[in-house]
Amino acid sequence: MPAEPSSLNASVASVGVQSRAPVGIFDSGLGGLSVLRAVRAQLPDEALLYLADSLYAPYGERDDDFIADRTLAIGEWLVKQGAKALIVACNTATAQSIALVREKLPIPLVGVEPGIKPAALQSKTRVAGVLATQVTLRSARFQALLERYAADCRFLCQPGHGLVQAVERCDVGSPELRALLRDYVQPMLDAGADTLVLGCTHYPFLDAAIRDIVGDRLALIDTSVAIARQLERVLEQHGMRAAPQTAGAAPPRFCSTGDGAHLRQIVATLLQIDADVERVVIPSPRTAALSSQPA
Ligand code: DGL
C-alpha cells in the first residue's frame, strides 16, 4: 500500500520541474527494483533514476537516526540529479523517515508501506502473516496502520532477519534461504493464515521460493503495482507526466553506493536490461562519522 502523497509544496515550481526529468527511485539496495519494474510497466514514458544504497544495506538492522540520515542525503542527491519526484521504495526508510524527508525536499514523494489494508480486505480466515524488517515492524507508522485494520483480523508479524542480506547476495533460492523462509511462514500456516503481506520491497524476489513452501495456501500481497499507480496519480496531480514517446523512455539510469555488481546482475535477470551501474558517493553526517572512526 503506498503511503499518502505529499501535497505540492510551493518550492516544486521553483525547481523548474520538467516533465522529461527522471523520477528518482531509492532503496537500501536491490529491493526497490521490484517497484521500478511495476513503474516501467505502468508509466513507460517516464525516465527513471534508480539509486541503491548498497554500501549501507540492510537498513532493517540500523538505528532510526542512521536511516533518516541516509534517506535525507539520498533524497537531496536525487534532487541535485534533476529528479522531479521520488519514490522511497523501501518500507523501512518510509516507516522511519518519510515525514522528515517530505518536509525537507522540494519535490513530491511517494512512500511504501506493508499491504495491511489489502490483506484485511481479502483474508477469509481473518488471520494474515506479515513479513517485514524489524525497524518497519516496530515503527509508530506501522503500529498505527495495524491498529486501524487489526480490529477483526489477526496479523502475525515476523521480522525477516537474513532475507534482505540473501537478496543482496542474489540468493533467491538456496537451501539455507528456503529453510529460513520455512521457519518464518510455517507458524503462520499453523495459525490458520491464508494471506502473507510482503512488507519489504526485497521480498517479491523471494515469491517463487515462498510459493514452493506454501503452495496456494497463502495469497501473497505485494504492493508494487499500487505504488506505480500512486506515482501516476501524483505526477498527474502536479502536471509532471512525461509526454508520450513512440519508443517509450530510454532505459533507466542505475546508480549504487556499492560496487554495483549484484545490481547489474539482478537488472539483467529481472528487467532484461544490460545496464552499466554507476558507482556514486553520497556522504551523510552519520557515514562521515563512521569513516572517521579508528579501524
Ligand atoms: N527494501 C527495504 C524495505 O522495503 C529493505 C530494508 C533493509 O535494507 O533492511 O524495507
TrEMBL record:
The UniProt GO MF terms for this protein read: glutamate racemase activity
Q: What class of enzyme is it?
A: isomerase
Q: Where does substrate bind?
A: D27, S28, Y59, G60, N91, T92, T201, H202
Q: Which residues form the active site?
A: C90 (proton donor/acceptor), C200 (proton donor/acceptor)
Q: Tell me the keywords, alphabetical order.
A: Cell shape, Cell wall biogenesis/degradation, Isomerase, Peptidoglycan synthesis
Q: Which InterPro entries match?
A: Asp/Glu/hydantoin_racemase, Asp/Glu_race, Asp/Glu_racemase_AS_1, Asp/Glu_racemase_AS_2, Glu_race
Q: Which family does it belong to?
A: Belongs to the aspartate/glutamate racemases family.
Q: Which HAMAP family match?
A: Glu_racemase
Q: Tell me, what does this protein do in biology? A: Provides the (R)-glutamate required for cell wall biosynthesis.
PANTHER family registered for this protein in UniProt: GLUTAMATE RACEMASE (PTHR21198)
Name of this protein: Glutamate racemase
Q: Which gene encodes it?
A: murI_2
